[in-house]
């Protein structure tokens, strides 16, 4: 039951209000009590002082003995709810006004012995205390010096009147505070229920959304309220999820489409080879070469797909080390040289520095190779592919320039997308080395970004294209990675 947000909100709210109300009631009551008690004490002291004044006059001016004078004055006093008693230095009673009729809450009016006990505590100065026998009576004792002797005047006052003032205040608080808390609890619960209803509705709507209807959205009544904003955020999340599902579906469809063609060629070629008896050795060889080429192509596609899948998951096993970019570029050019020679393309590399770098050497090699490979494949025979590596402020810039056919304007903004090929027809008819699945540049971009850098198409026209790799000289992105630790980012 306490798991319900409504109940919890109500309890918190009511509890807090209860504490505030009780604190307010206690403080107010304490204030009234202190003021009333002071008034009572002042009145008691005042009446005792006026008795003392009369006694002093009588003792100084009269011709009676001190005891007679005291008795005379004291017995004549009649004041409501009060009693006066005078004791001698041995605390024996000298005079005593009548005790008031007192029947109140099981309390007793203090006896003469009790009053004498207060007088005994008087010492050198006046004392103002609750009666020892009853907390409903205040007692004031004060010494009185006559010419020859010392006496103690004790005045007692019932707190009846004070209680009559305080009782209604207490009763009001006893009723008002719980009533206010009860009303607040009911009101708070209803308010919480009303305000949380949209959350319940949102929850029901969200529960109906699955991967098959990710395009559905929560109804947003007002985007100015907290819940409205929550619905908008949730809808944004759904949109991102939908996009991600959509990408995943497209990726699967594109991947199977890319694999379907080489598989069909392999099957077709092997079926033809098997169906004809008495084929010549060269014919078998030709078929096997085609099967081998397509097999290699499929391996490359599967390897690229695997790289991208691990990049998406962020689980690509990185091997970080220190190396020279110059060496890596030279290795890439070396492995690309036979293809370039085969196609009659001149490859050259210009740099004046070693270009020390820290990162995954295998991935950086793949990044550079993808660009050189694209340049070689898209450059006609007799053309030129040049690589320039330079250091500019805090970045290494590697330019890969070709004298190829260029990339059509409408294709330029898509070439970094997965499975995108600028000229599908042309690629299809190329030899096996020229057939790409459209994954090379998206992998290149992922590798560059993983190392804190970028790959961009700087220029492309009918004279050729130039791609630029930019890598930070201090690779902060990988600064925290231990050598050999995994952790690729998304492409
Ligand atoms: P692929 O594996 O097909 O080469 P990429 O992602 O590497 O895929 O490249 C995407 C497309 O961009 C290629 O199919 C090609 O049409 C175009 N492209 C890339 N580099 C060049 C280049 N240097 N010259 C002309 N076109 C290029």
Q: What this model shows, in words?
A:
Strands 2-1-5-4-3 form a five-stranded antiparallel beta sheet, with helices on both faces. Strands 7-9-10-12-11 form a five-stranded mixed beta sheet, with helices on one face. With 491 residues, it is of the alpha+beta class. The two termini are 47 Å apart. α1 (5-61) packs across α2. A hairpin with a 2-residue loop joins β9 (384-392) and β10. Helix content is 53%, strand content 16%. It is rod-shaped. The chain has ten helices and twelve strands. Bound molecules: adenosine-5'-diphosphate (ADP).
Structural features:
10 helices, 53% helix, five-stranded antiparallel β-sheet, single chain, 491 residues, five-stranded mixed β-sheet
Which helices and strands, and how do they pair?
Elements: H1 5-61, H2 66-75, E1 82-87, E2 93-96, H3 112-120, E3 127-130, E4 137-145, E5 150-158, H4 160-208, H5 226-275, H6 281-313, E6 320-324, H7 325-343, E7 346-350, E8 356-360, H8 361-377, E9 384-392, E10 395-402, H9 424-429, H10 440-450, E11 454-461, E12 464-472
Helix pairs in contact: 1-2, 1-4, 5-6, 7-8, 8-10
Bound molecules: adenosine-5'-diphosphate.
